[in-house]
Amino acid sequence: MNMQPFPPVPHAGVLPSGPRSSIADVAGVTVGHCTLDEGPIQTGVTVLHPHPGDVYRRKVPAGATVINGFGKSVGLVQVNELGLLETPIALTNTFGVGAIAQAQIRSAIRANPQIGRDWPTVNPLVFECNDGYLNDIQALAVTAEHYEIACSNASVEVQRGAVGAGRGMSCFDLKGGIGTASRVIEIAGERYTTGALALTNFGRLPTLTLGGVAVGRVLAKRSASGDTHATKPEHGSIIMIIATDAPLDARQLKRLSMRAAAGLARTGSVYGHGSGDIALAFTTAWTVACDADLAIRPQILADARLDPLFEACADSVEQSIVDAMWHAVSVTGRTGHRRLSLHDAAPDIAQLIDGVRL
Known about the structure:
Elements (H helix, E strand, L loop, with lengths): L29 E9 L2 E9 L8 E12 L6 H7 L1 E2 L3 E5 L3 H15 L14 E4 L14 H9 L17 E2 L2 E2 L1 E11 L2 E13 L12 H8 L3 H6 L3 E10 L5 H9 L1 H7 L7 E10 L4 E2 L17 H21 L3 E2 L5 E2 L2 H4 L3 H7 L3
Parallel strand pairs: 5-6, 11-12
Antiparallel strand pairs: 1-2, 2-5, 3-4, 3-12, 3-13, 7-8, 9-10, 10-11, 14-15
Organism: Paraburkholderia pallida
GO molecular function: aminopeptidase activity
């Protein structure tokens, strides 16, 4: 395992990052992980809080895009119908979705006992990727306790790499995981921050592109499995969460979420048949009270002003994917299956990005 300090993550695009270069640069957003690292159990839970309050009582405007629907998430139907989040956003493995959704429901009921009786039910929101190559997914190891631990660990200091839901994930036949980035823009004299967090579990090594450089071709040629890499289909999934403090409505947030596909494509994905590629965007600029008769919202940006946000979304998603691979460590899991980290597979990766031109 490469224990040397990593060189800086390649910067995508020309827009500047926020101070942490993470989704937590959007004020109020925090992220927590619970990581399970026990032999064949290589999995976990990641929870993103859009604000520090009760999300059921202060619902958050949101919109989602299903780029390729080979996925088993919970809660997207209502998000796309009502344009609101009413729980924190949870990420885990495919077979952990039910346990985490139930944990979200129980947490909301503890805070609001009227839910499901005098008040409407709650819409849990859980996204997933299949970590079954490294993790014994049939063990159903993820439980409600792990959701609570991830919530209690929520912080503006976002851990990256093979942590939380990203522990058992693979990306471009190397180690994937959790990555994050942010961009700062100006619209009509106002500064706004857009951040992304990605759970990466997709791709084929020969198509890996970092900083616009097709380094995957070089790494595939070096690999003893080069021929297999060249012919295997693209499987896996990616979940991309985009946060912004720009005043947008749910329709505009859906448009913003669609631009995550541009950042994903830059890294070499073709959204293969067996890949579940989903993006969700939300804003912290305003909330909707659960008992409101009239939703009070700020003035919303005109659609013609959204291009800088679209650029910030694409750039921060691209860098989040690279960030996940850049910070991941090599992991050995179920039946000896192993994924090398990007740095273990290519100790000269920074030089490759600077020097390869194909």
